[in-house]
## 1
Amino acid sequence: MSEQRVHFYQVGSFAVGNRLLSADDRTVQSSPHRTNSIDSGHRACQGCGEALGARYALDAAMRATNGQLLAVNATGCLEVFSTPYPETSWRIPWLHSLFGNAPAVATGVAAAMRVKGRSDVRVVGQAGDGGTVDIGFGTLSGMFERNDDVLFICYDNEGYMNTGVQRSAATPPAARTATTDVVGAEPGNSFGQGKDLPRIAMAHDIPYVATATVADLHDLERKVERAMSFRGARYLHVFVPCPLGWGSATNETIHLARLAKETGLFPVFEAEHGVVTNVSRIRRLAPVEEYLKLQRRYAHLFGAKGRPDIVARLQAIADANIARYGLAPERDELDNREDA
Amino acid sequence: MERPFAITLDVGTSRANHTGSWRVERPVYVDRLPPCNDACPAGENIQGWLYEAESGGYEAAWRKLVENNPLPAIMGRVCFHPCESACNRVQVDEAVGINAVERFLGDTAIEHGWSLPPAGPDTGKRVLVVGAGPAGLGAAYHLRLLGHQVRLVDSSPKLGGMLRYGIPAYRLPRAILDAEIARITDMGVEVIVNHTVHDIDVERHEGGFDAVFLAVGAQLGKRVNIPAGDSSKVIDAVSFLHQVADEDPPMLGRRVVVYGGGDTALDAARTARRLGATDAVIVYRRNRDKMPAHAEEVEQALGEGVTVRWLSTVERFEHERLVLEKMRLNADGFPEPTGEYEELDADSLVLALGQDTDLSLLEGNDNVEVRDGVVQVATTMMTNEGGVFAGGDAAPSDRTATVAVGHGKRAARGIDAYLRNVDFVSGDRHDLATADHLNTWYYADAPRTERPELERIRRQTNFEEVIGGLTEENALFEARRCLSCGNCFECDNCFGVCPDNAVIKLGGEVKYEFNYDFCKGCGICVRECPCGAIEMIPELI
Ligand SMILES: Cc1cc2nc3c(=O)[nH]c(=O)nc-3n(C[C@H](O)[C@H](O)[C@H](O)COP(=O)(O)OP(=O)(O)OC[C@H]3O[C@@H](n4cnc5c(N)ncnc54)[C@H](O)[C@@H]3O)c2cc1C
Ligand SMILES: Cc1ncc(C[n+]2csc(CCOP(=O)(O)OP(=O)(O)O)c2C)c(N)n1
Ligand code: SF4
Ligand code: SF4
Ligand code: SF4
Ligand SMILES: [Mg+2]
């Protein structure tokens, strides 16, 4: 299933909305009546990608379920910045228990709804990358294995941000964190480790697995909608830049997410029952430097004492992703660029 | 209220927490000046009318267009469109076909009989406009809008100036010209044709005019001294084209040589072809790169069988034989004679070496300053004599029809300020929306639509219009290619990308508003605005 690109409008379907688009072609976010699942006044940092990703995903899920939605949250930035007692930013039913048990709690809530005869109420579980790929991994794998009726969303900012930017199993190689200092022959996080959760989820043969970024709203919303059309365990992995943890300018959040996709470092695709069904191809191929240089967590790779060899290894990762998922730009896009 | 043990606060929404206090910079919506608008000599709000056209609001678009230029169907044909050269869309693919859409709007208006806005409330002031070319017509239109009475006089039997007597019909059909001129005169302009003004002061005072606008153009074809035998037919291009426009074409024979390298030379050669010349040869002293004529026009002329002798000057013309001297360009690009000669058979020679202004009507006036053959004016277009204004080809100008209409508008505003005895204020100039303000990621690839061209064979024999118009569908597509540089076009990006829901979507005129109670000043909205319509400014702390 691929998205319809409307070529006749100034902004095609890349922008949030457009007064010239029909209501059906507009995003949920373009509507003044969107839920705003997470309200103003939350304490996320300036330019937080996670706050944005959560609103995007949950507002889309609210539309897909006609407002019959309940969210279960793991500990992490999203939980902490939205609910410092006695305030809450949530405008949807929302529940928090622990850092590591969100998938299990979500399973329990779904079961409770079924018992109450309210299977129309759908459940979303959500966590940061730490809560998903590390401490929550056991309960998540169980949730997948039992095919519980939950959409689990991971907001991946590539580290334990809430506690001060420690490494997680989703932190990319060479990145500096509080626990992967830039010392030694391989400064920053090491190569060859970490977990690729979307692929692990696919290995569970669950009905639906997808990745998305905050830079392509149409794609993200469509995937949430698609996810809600299935019953059983579903997994959505959303790439959400973190200005604080990455040392990036607060206004670069969306641009960085776009570059992660356009370099091939973060493959955007979807899979059904363990098989990849759709990939978002690169539109304007960019070298990894362009993405890395905007983030201070990679600053040790550049400048006088830079490490072009490490940059090359990161480029190789991007190239491997491009090859694995077939992300190379479409021919006609390339032609257009050559003409220009 | 009963509270659980150790709980002292009531739960409530985070909206109580005004995170706007974190901000050190704030986003504000701005309008920047689109480069197309900046480049338009007639001062059109191109981005503004394209915005209306994008949603199919052609009448609204046309109304916005004629606020500045009452001749869109004409401009959509003859303007050399400097706007397109400035268009930011080249950063994405190719410039927006502004001129083609302008013509579509102009033609649609004529088809539907849309009329210009009514004249303004009568001020009781009377203005004499001398010359009914684009400058005079533009001035008459704007003066009527401002409520002044206008008498428009011209020595020719019909209005239009060089639009009628210079530019050939295959580029500007007369029905179009007539329709757009009639719309202006219908606003209540007193028109006197076949009347040459010989003394401006006499004419002004006898008629009791409060102000005068001199828009007499440059009617005199320049001559150079070329030894020519008695029997040799030599004519200047403006006279030639004028006679053709009068439907009284001179007999030039089958071999016509045109001397010069400007647009007028091309028009003369193409016209000669249409009148039956088998050979229409342009002789030009420099090479193609240095030719002042516009590349598109050159291309079209060559396509119609016009040929060019580059790097040549005409030495003499006798017994149906033209002697040419070959030139070469020196290091500075100037042509130098080589001493080598060649011959060319010719029945006639047309001189297209530029035009001079005939300012004999100023002979009795010592105040108006004439320098370099043209009337000197201030920014208001006023000459050194109070109440006497000048514009178009008769004033310092790039000598295009578009500059002339622009002068007409500016002069009308200058005259208005003079008559009301107030200072002339030109509108606020916004910062230029240069390409670095754009986030071009959001624009879809959409190649430009070209206008259809008349088949070549049909162009060699008649005066049918060469360039066709766009269909409605194509014009809409083209309008939608506009990036809306520097001006919000409601893409909802700022509303969508704010992590703090601090953008309020209002719809209607105001479009969006910031909620500074919650805006943390991250700047994402500015970064992701496709067209550069938001700016970060420091917060006063
Ligand atoms: C062959 C040719 C092709 C051209 N092609 C283009 C083109 O494609 N695009 C473009 O933008 N420009 C073109 N131009 C230039 C453009 O036509 C002129 O710059 C423009 O018409 C100047 O406008 P104007 O109103 O100043 O003068 P004009 O158009 O010359 O009008 C002046 C009017 O004043 C009248 N007049 C003069 N003296 C008196 C007097 N004493 N009393 C009463 N009336 C008087 C004349 O009869 C005339 O009607 C072309 C010019 C020529 C000659
Ligand atoms: C069992 C347990 N261990 C440690 C913590 C401390 N802790 C809270 S949030 C967090 C990191 C969250 O990281 P992630 O899930 O990636 O979310 P982020 O804050 O990055 O969005 C940690 C370590 C805890 N709350 N519970
Ligand atoms: S640390 Fe990162 S994820 Fe957490 S609130 Fe700040 S920007 Fe968002
Ligand atoms: S893209 Fe539109 S607003 Fe920008 S310069 Fe071109 S025509 Fe003007
Ligand atoms: S995106 Fe929101 S918080 Fe950031 S500057 Fe714009 S309005 Fe303010
Ligand atoms: Mg994290």
## 2
Amino acid sequence: MALDDRKSGFTFVGTRPNRPDGLDKVTGRAKFGADISAPGMLFGAVLRSPHAHARIVKIDASKAEAHKDVKAVVTRADFADVLFKPGLEGEFWNVLENVMAGEKALYDGHAVAAIAATSALAARDALKLIEVEYEVLPHVTDVDKAMATDAPVIREGAADYSVPEGMHPNVVRYHDSGHGDVEAGFAEADLVIEDSFVTEATHQGYIEPHACLAMLGNDGKGELWCTTQGHWIAQKTCAALLGIETSQLRVTASEIGGGFGGKTTVFIEPVALALSRKANRPVKLVMTRSEVFRATGPTSSASMDIKIGMKKDGTITAAQGVFRLQGGAFPGAPGDMTAMCAFAPYNLTNVKQIGYDVMANRPKQAAYRAPGAPMGAFAVESVIDELCKKLDLDPVDVRLKNAAHEGTKASYGPRYERIGLVETLVAAKAHPHYSAPLKPGQGRGISCGFWFNHGGETSVSLALSEDGSAQLMVGTPDIGGSRASMALMAAEVLGIPYENIRVTIADTATLGYNDVSHGSRVTYASGLATIKAAKHAVEKLSERAAAKWGIPVDAVKWEDGCAVPSGPNAGDFDPMPLADITADMGSTGGPISGHFEATPEGAGVSFGTHIVDAEVDPETGKTSVTRYTVIQDAGKAIHPTYVEGQYQGGAAQGIGWALNEEYIYGDDGRLQNSIFLDYRIPVASDLPMIDTVIVEVPNPGHPFGVRGVGETGIVPPLAAIANAVSHAAGVRMRQLPMSPPRILAALKDNG
Amino acid sequence: MDYHSPASFAEASALAANATGTTRFLAGGTDVLVQLRSDLVTPNTLIDIKKINGVQDITRNADGSWTIGVAATGAEMSEHAELVRDWPGVVEAMDLIGSTQVQGRATLTGNLCNGSPAADSVPAMVAAGVTVTVTGPDGSREVAVEDIPTGPGRTALNKGELISAVNIPARGANGGDAYLRFIPRTEMDIAVVGVGVNLRLEGDTITEARVSLGAVAPTVLLVEDCAKAIIGSTLDEAALDALAAAASAACNPIDDKRGTIAFRTEVSGVLATRAAKIAYARAKGEQA
Ligand SMILES: Cc1cc2nc3c(=O)[nH]c(=O)nc-3n(C[C@H](O)[C@H](O)[C@H](O)COP(=O)(O)OP(=O)(O)OC[C@H]3O[C@@H](n4cnc5c(N)ncnc54)[C@H](O)[C@@H]3O)c2cc1C
């Protein structure tokens, strides 16, 4: 999209006011998913498979249905593919199959039936009255085993055209890209390292479990309140799954207690709607933590082979990676993303990457911040680190030598526009952290990371009030302080104070379509739309001023919140403040609003560099992260504090993923650690203060230069921490998480 | 579910003796209520012991021994300066449990009777030689803490019996105790290995010792070989090596989501030496 009047001097943008939702959140006034109720409301509960893979022979719900407190029981028969033939296709079918099992239960925790009853306890207890007859089938949860010839087949015919002949039916998508001649490149290298790496699935670990309140009448009209990153996708998906018209379902997004990609799809929402339709009463459904772990989307687990050749001077001559990602019992593991991101920071003559999307008997993976990228970076940046060590080269210098810049042909194809990787590396080298001495037992790791960022469909609407204040309606749930950023951008254009702008996350009936808050797109895309909507309002304000002054509209310009004559020949008028124009807008032409709808496509890719110090207890294998610095290109930081928050959050989640978080399956294919006690996300005292450096290399695709910052921050940590730990322990760690038992075992193996 | 709040231990015992189905005593509830809410254990009878007179008291007896009420919380123990001075190991073990919120509720007795092999206060109590008073339909008896757990989630208490007091011996001269646990995080986690050490010195030489291991066997262990390894020594390198070896040898752990057999076995030796050093320093009157 062509951009006019790009801006570089700012009044509001770049300041750090309190977020508009802050007071509500610290006082408990904010309403999250479970904080709502309706008259006559019932409570739902979901019956889940105790088996990793089983044919559902029979479901007998008669005892439950006969219970006095039970008002509805639903199974797969209550959804659209049965009720409305010919049924659903593609991802809608996958989502339906995931929210309510069909012929087979595909993973431990897969929903097989649900109940609505007069209390939450009654619903929970009544689940025990449903009798399900299962025929247990062989299962597989490991990605490499799921690809092996003898692996149980999860679903025949799920593979698409991309998969080469002869692969196991569990391999459902294949990606292959690159350029140059890697064999020739390896031949030119002074040192070639080939190594394999494994990462376990991790959960986004949002503190708020999935929760919703659903109402659906037999007239096909419905209301849904839910915690989500995108209520339009919830609307579209639920409508399809229930066989109703999209516009007849109004969806309102609650405040959200974390999502990180995991709330970009639906789980309990269609179930609650189906229960409500059957009971003809509102139904509230709230997941337990254990349900969140077992049945919502963790990230993929991965198994990867990397080969990189380097010259003595640090030049990478060739790079090759094979990335196998397991994404649960459905297509969707982002093997293609892993492959495309893995070598993206580097300017490579010869590069080749292959990605596999593999199904296994686990919950359907969901996005988790830069989905697929962190594991690839872990493998690639570990090998680069090992090359630097063996060739005795400085790891930042080597990365600088090979860094991609404007014009570089990316490993995944296109040529980069203006990007900020080099600037982050230069800042890393200059940062006091990089030259600070290490204590004995400590190691330092660095890593770069890349993420695409996304634009997506966006609608924004802005309305001015008579008193000169403004209300801004955006459709992207605020998952990271975006209301503050939107208000700052609107303030910048309108020239009225930040405090005079109220930003609302509009429901699906109040605004046009909006994509999910994902892909680091909100500040970029809703921000761009906010700027355009505000400009649209400014045009109208200028027209009213021109009419009052009796001069042509192109003789009026907008400055610091006022209409002013554009020059000496336009006439001699005092500046006319916004509030003077809105005061009588009803009689000068009617309400003044601005809006903007588009799919902005200049999101601008993003890079970061992380520096980590870690200390390993050689007797117990326990790691502590002693110092952490995140350096990332934000393009332009609209609200620097919330940008820093994103950087710190990425590092914190990365520390968890690197050190202790993992999905642990027993031999029976059941998840062993579905509570926060045993699924070990870091607690506050596990983390050092995470230092941040905001680099600003403006994105040419945004009027203020914004690049998304939400995801890139989780790409470098796995590798940076692994490199730090490997140096501290004196042994290369190739498997995540680097839990104390794994580190201690590696130390023992190493003698 | 029937809820009772008796005014005496005799009444509590009678209620429990006559109850059918699953009975739980409600002290802090940080195990009972969590298990109830997560649908693991829904008791038929819940007997709240917090209304019994004196259960919150922490008393230093004339002979220097201590009586801890069965509803005295971790927070109250940590804030009791004299108790901390006498038995820092027991108090720090209790203090490791949960968060500030949990500390305001959790009790030694609940930790013991929940029957977890990984319960933090239990190895510290065993090392300290703590006993409990058990009240039942036939009166009261005194039982060593190490004899209460019989397996994961199981205790030696008979139907109708409950604990009415926790008795910590007099500290006496030149003694020190310590408790350490291994967790992969820094707090809010469950012990992968726990070690309690309590010892007494004459000059620089250890004359008495008790070493207890948690989370490495179906019940908390009192390990005589560990005590033997350090009694008579000045906790020199050789004694520490022998202690570590004895601790590792005593382990009978499982491989599970929290740790491997190899890891638990190795780390119990490491922690035993580290805890012994702290107890030794405390016995010498040093800050540790
Ligand atoms: C967030 C959290 C973190 C935790 N962290 C830890 C930890 O780090 N380490 C650890 O060891 N534990 C931990 N726990 C478990 C728990 O807090 C402890 O076991 C605590 O000491 C239990 O004490 P309570 O008074 O709450 O017991 P309750 O829950 O009231 O009772 C526990 C059991 O003891 C029995 N009981 C209670 N009183 C008596 C009595 N007088 N006579 C006979 N039986 C009795 C009950 O019947 C029940 O079976 C944690 C729990 C939570 C919720």
